[in-house]
Amino acid sequence: MCKECKTKPRAYAYRRGDRVYWRSVCDTCNRKRMGKRVGGITALQRSGYKKHKKCELCGFKAQDKAQLDVLFVDGNLRNTAATNLKTVCANCQRLAGVRRLGWRVGDLIADD
Ligand SMILES: [Zn+2]
Ligand SMILES: [Zn+2]
Hints:
The protein contains three helices and four strands; from the N terminus they run E-E-H-H-E-E-H. It is of the alpha+beta class. It starts with 11 loop residues before the first strand and ends in a 14-residue tail after the last helix. The site of one zinc ion (ZN) has 8 residues, from helix 1.
């Protein structure tokens, strides 16, 4: 459980080999913390990354950009290299927390 709000489960951070690393707080609290630390501008915003118009995982076409999130392939929110960023829909973003996507940094987008 999240240390701060104690109501939401902790956020999945990243996976290395067989180990899964978890944050001590949930997504919401984590985002609040990050916001404080970087003064409201995330590394992502600084990088100028532009979201695609559709989900790179399931191909979902968004009507509004708010439906799409940016996924950090290696789980490191400071790694804003183009190869580490994927546009995914809210649905896939949620899934990324519970199962491994199989993407590695630098993988090409599958076109099927
Ligand atoms: Zn929380
Ligand atoms: Zn999707």
